[in-house]
Amino acid sequence: MAPILYPQVLDEPDWFGAPGAAQPSDASVDKFQVNLWAQEREILAKEDWEMKHHRWPLILLCALALLVSSAAAQRRPLKVMVLYDMEGVSGATNERHTNYAHPAEYAEGRKSLTADVNAAIAGLKAAGATEIVVVDGHGSGNTTGPDVLEDQLLPPAKVHYQDTPFDIYMDSYDASFDAIVAVAMHAGAGNRVGFLSHTDSAEDVEYTVNGVPFNESMILATGAARLKIPLIMVSGDDQLEKEIHRNMPWVEYAAAKHAVDRVRAESFPREEVSRRIEAAARRALEKLDQAKLPDWPGPYRFALTFQDEEQAGHAALLAGAELLRNGRSVQIRSQDFEEGYRRSLRLIGLAEHVGWMTAFQAVIDGEPNAAQLRVKVIDSLNDRWLDKLPKPATRPSPSRPRRYWGAQ
């Protein structure tokens, strides 16, 4: 085999390329080849020495730097918000488990809620969360404290309080959060099977944005996306699971129970639910770098369908609202999602006034002395008009400022 030649470093003999030059003897050629091989070995030996003494240390230093950088990234503080509702609680199988007005059933619901939230906290801690903030997103009617049993929360979780009322889906977080987890959520308005399904209120039977049915998890995710905070995990019944997979398939989900219909649910075993929630929360935070934000561009059309035409007509009094042809739906338009969402709450508020009056009327009509009760209501209205009612007692100033923990 011919030797490898390095004309750039070796002096070429005159006969290389010299026309008419005499060919050297075989002995001189053999000597020249031996010299080439010797120089070739010397060059290779030098490169090998440089590799061992210069390049490998550099490679090792680069590898060490990558390991240190990766470890530092894993140890960086991670702040996560855990927002909970109650309709999706594993142990809530009827409406009373979520309602402060029914103490015995509500107490059971609180225990189950606390277990669900703690399972999420355990998963987040295992994945490296260093700060966990818990927000009450239900509003059971309990004005004495959050629905979760605060003294039983696993550390480092703490309940979030503010000095003024705040919207749980738009105002309960800031840019310091890395991710959001939603526990015990429920299917959206219009889902005829989801347990206690609704969106923001029991008064609207459908809630759509640009024609897409929206649940509260989707509202939360869209609101948080303004600050680039991803919703990474949700738990609730198996009907909400379908909605999440259809609209936000990248979000981890833990099914806590089976929805039989809107008023009944079947719980899964406690240990299984805790395992599912903990595992889903851990997976979600471990792959935080793969989290996505919803991309539902504006302009936005919020359309709410109410239980009856009277509610819709009252809601349509809001400036800019449009009453649709079916007589029960009202829509508003907005370039900004947050603005449209907040205006949709005003539609709901107007409709709720009608709903409450309808409920009061139905209760009175069901009493044996309904006629006398109606007269008392009319007399009270007249007394209020004529300023004949006694002045309400002045409430003493609270010993400390009131604190708000979310939906109350």
Topology:
Blueprint: H1 26-75, E1 79-84, H2 103-126, E2 131-136, E3 158-159, E4 179-185, E5 204-209, E6 212-213, H3 216-225, E7 231-237, H4 238-247, E8 252-261, E9 264-267, H5 270-286, E10 300-306, H6 309-315, E11 322-323, E12 329-334, H7 337-365, H8 370-385
Helix pairs in contact: 2-5, 6-7
Features:
five-stranded antiparallel β-sheet; 40% helix; globular; 8 helices; alpha/beta; 408 residues
Provide a concise account of the structure shown:
By secondary structure, this protein is an alpha/beta fold.
Architecture overview:
The chain has 408 residues and is an alpha/beta fold. It contains eight helices and twelve strands. It has helices spanning 26-75, 103-126, 216-225, 238-247, 270-286, 309-315, 337-365, 370-385, and strands at residues 79-84, 131-136, 158-159, 179-185, 204-209, 212-213, 231-237, 252-261, 264-267, 300-306, 322-323, 329-334. The strands form two sheets. A seven-stranded mixed sheet has the order 3-2-1-4-7-8-9, with helices on both faces. Strands 6-5-10-12-11 form a five-stranded antiparallel sheet. α2 packs parallel to α5 (270-286) and α6 (309-315) packs across α7 (337-365). The radius of gyration is 35 Å and the shape is globular. Mean pLDDT is 87; it is low at 1-23 and 68-73.
